[in-house]
Design a protein that fits this description.
The protein is 40% helix and 24% strand. By secondary structure, the protein is an alpha+beta fold. The chain folds into 2 domains: 1-113 and 309-377, P-loop containing nucleotide triphosphate hydrolases (Rossmann fold), CATH 3.40.50; 118-307, RecF/RecN/SMC, N-terminal domain (Glutathione S-transferase Yfyf (Class Pi), Chain A, domain 2). Strand 10 and strand 11 form a beta hairpin. The longest helix has 38 residues, at 178-215. Bound molecules: adenosine-5'-diphosphate and magnesium ion. The site of magnesium ion (MG) has 5 residues, from helix 1.
Length: 377
């Protein structure tokens, strides 16, 4: 996967800027608050079809402007594609793919693949389980259309089940209807659980290999899918039975709480290093290596599933990594397109890389890799 061109019109602090990205490494350099992360956000938007930074997407429109547009032109194995996203105030965003309006978001899932790594990810192990679930969902939604459908369905089902649980407190006769909702919860939940379990198994195997390479010694990194059923299941059917039984067992408690207290919305990932929970025992350095291995494994999983390596987006991450870890990341980036941002250009390798100097929402200057000389955009 290669981005050829990115045009941002009234997107965040970019009035109208076109980036021509090269194969290999593209560096967005500049002081703080100039627009580097805004650019990365626009690219990643094209993968997730939503912002990873804001809930209210109106915030993406340049202050005072009426609409914002992202136009991404990218090459896949099959040819060149164009994805256009238009944001307007108080209206749903509009998607166009190769000029045609796309009404169903699901038709766009997986079209443009990128993997993002930001300093925020370094907190993934120590933070609460919702961050880790979010990581899983973001990765799986970009890979598996059916997963996205099931996840959306599951969220609706839980909302309905919770409403019914609360009604049951007033009218216990309604409790009979819970059987149907338990079935529905277990059905969508079983698909999601199996997908998460399978994904973590392959992610764990790759991350383990990367971790040893980074650490320079054999140390076992393991990512384990944690659910409330305590054991992993061999099949979707088995998950279905486990989830449904659990819901039935918890029904009284759920009614009292007016909430579904068990299910895949409580899942977590356990990071183990040499058999010990990284959350409690790992050093800062081990956590950095673990997350680095995880993120690179995420990209590798996209490649395995899609046969095309995703674009890597590294936002301000190099300053968080020491020379050894930086070297590893550069080795892995070899041959793939990467966009990385930095405030400290001097500290990173820049020979042969395309550099965009960003200032106040504009590319003030670029340096193309072939000449190495400064040139005005
Ligand atoms: N909707 C918007 N309209 C105009 N400017 C915006 C908008 N949203 C954010 N900004 C500006 O973008 C800048 C931050 O850009 P960012 O990409 O996060 O910086 P950095 O270069 O440090 O990564 C800030 O100056 C902020 O005011
Ligand atoms: Mg930034």
């Amino acid at each position: 996967m290669r981005i050829r061109k990115l045009r941002l019109e009234n997107f965040r602090n970019f009035k109208d800027q076109t980036f021509y990205f090269e194969d290999g490494i593209n560096i967005l350099a500049g002081d703080n608050a100039q627009g580097k992360t805004n650019c990365v956000e626009a690219v990643y938007f094209c993968t997730c079809l939503k912002s990873y930074r804001v809930i209210r997407e109106e915030q993406l429109i340049l202050f005072g402007a009426e609409e914002a547009v992202i136009t991404l032109t990218f090459a896949t194995g099959g040819g060149e594609e164009e994805l256009k996203i238009i944001f307007r105030h108080e209206k749903p965003k509009e998607f166009r793919y190769n000029g045609l309006v796309v009404n169903r978001l699901r038709d766009l899932i997986g079209c443009f693949q990128s993997v993002i790594f930001t300093p925020d990810h370094l907190n993934l192990i120590k933070e609460g389980p919702n961050k880790r679930r979010n990581f899983l969902d973001m990765a799986l939604c970009a890979l598996d259309l059916h997963y996205t459908d099931q996840l959306l369905a599951y969220q609706k089902i839980i909302k309905n089940r919770n409403a019914l649980l609360r009604q049951c407190r007033e009218n216990p006769l309604l409790a009979e209807m819970l059987d149907i909702w338990d079935e529905k919860t277990a059905e969508a939940g079983a698909y999601i659980a199996k997908a998460r379990q399978d994904y973590l198994l392959s992610l764990s195997a790759i991350a383990q290999r990367f971790y040893c390479d980074i650490a320079g010694k054999e140390e076992k990194l393991k990512l384990i899918y944690l659910n409330q059923f305590t054991k992993n299941a061999a099949s979707q059917e088995e998950f279905f039975a486990l989830i449904r039984n659990r819901l039935q067992k918890m029904r009284e408690a759920d009614m009292a709480m007016g909430q579904t207290t068990s299910g895949i919305h409580k899942d977590d990932i356990l990071f183990l290093l040499a058999g010990k929970s990284m959350k409690y025992f790992a050093s800062q350095g081990q956590i950095r290596s673990g997350i680095l291995a995880l993120k690179l494994a995420e990209a590798e999983c996209v490649y395995k599933k899609r046969g095309d390596f995703p674009v890597l987006l590294l936002d301000d991450i190099l300053s968080e990594l020491d020379a050894k870890r930086q070297k590893f990341i550069f080795q892995r980036m070899e041959g793939h397109q990467t966009i990385l941002t930095t405030c400290e250009l001097g500290k990173i390798r820049k020979k042969g890389d395309q550099i965009f100097f960003i200032k106040e929402g504009r590319v003030a200057r670029t340096r193309v890799p072939s000449s190495g000389a400064g040139c005005i955009n």
